[in-house]
Amino acid sequence: MAFSVGMRGARVLVSALRRGDVDLAYLGLQPTLTVTQDLKQGDFRIIAVSAASTRLCNVIVARRGVPPLNSRAALDWLAGKRIAVPAGSCADLFLADVLARAHVHPARIFDQSIDMLASSLESHAVDAVAVWEPTATELVQADGAQRLIDGDAIGESGAAFVVARASLLKDHPDVVAAWLEAERAAERLLARGGAETPVLERIESRETDLPISVIQAAWWGESGGSRGSPSPATFPFRVTPEISSMLRGAAARMAARNLLKSPVLRAGTVDDGLARAILAREDPSTGGAEVGR
């Protein structure tokens, strides 16, 4: 199995999965549903949950010069503004949900790739962007943008999923199981906390365009964090009832916006038996439960 890191953006990964270039990928909430609900473009399954958090995907960043605002004022500020977001991404779903619930109407929403967001903010071509971490923190640190609102402020959670082609699960279950064992080991390291641990340094060594300071700030936020600090995410690994509810709610909202044909998850969407088996063999002190905050 070949591993590629740094493929950023939902459309890139969804297209790669559907073309057959990729058999397993990490996706946010909206692209996970996009790729798993259309059997005509391939049979893909949710095989694990990488992480759940209010912070890591649900972020709206404003251009330089916008003062810090509380959540209600931040939502009101978005009225009549120009907002950019990579279409089809987890941030796209967050933005649509936030605007709909607050009955806020921006002047225009632009579909922009992740690589365009910084220049759009810097030139004031847009007033705000919806994006995920660590890009949100990179915009704040490098371009003087203002973190306007995130899931922490309004109690909005998101999740990252491991999605795999059904044929990979059938033909090479040993390969998938080995991958998930490694994924779970990484999750347990991250859940222990500690911005000084080698884990973040390894991430930085693979994402060479991001300095370690960006990754640390994206993970720990303004509070910083130190060895033993609680993680800003939880790591359910299996599809828990809470994650199931998140998926069903997102599917209903996406169907209402004509992004999915049905608001009901198709049979076979979740195939997390391998993940559950790994949890069953885990240290009894965890009880096979999620780890994290």
Strand content: 15-25%
Which fold does the CATH topology of the largest domain refer to?
Answer: D-Maltodextrin-Binding Protein, domain 2
Let me know the number of strands: 10
Supply the number of structural domains. 3
Low confidence ranges: 223-228, 286-293
Please state the structural category: alpha+beta
Walk me through what this model shows:
With 293 residues, this protein is an alpha+beta fold. The chain folds into three domains: 10-53 and 157-191 and 234-292, D-Maltodextrin-Binding Protein, domain 2 (3-Layer(aba) Sandwich), CATH 3.40.190; 59-154, Periplasmic binding protein-like II (D-Maltodextrin-Binding Protein, domain 2), CATH 3.40.190; 193-230, no CATH class. The chain has 13 helices and ten strands. It has helices at residues 10-19, 29-36, 71-77, 90-102, 117-122, 135-143, 151-154, 166-171, 173-191, 198-206, 212-220, 241-256, 273-280, and strands at 24-27, 44-53, 59-62, 82-85, 108-111, 128-131, 146-150, 158-165, 234-235, 291-292. The chain has a five-stranded mixed sheet, sandwiched between helices. A three-stranded antiparallel sheet has the order 1-8-2, sandwiched between helices. β4, α4 (90-102) and β5 (108-111) form a beta-alpha-beta unit. α6 packs across α11 (212-220). The relative contact order is 0.19.
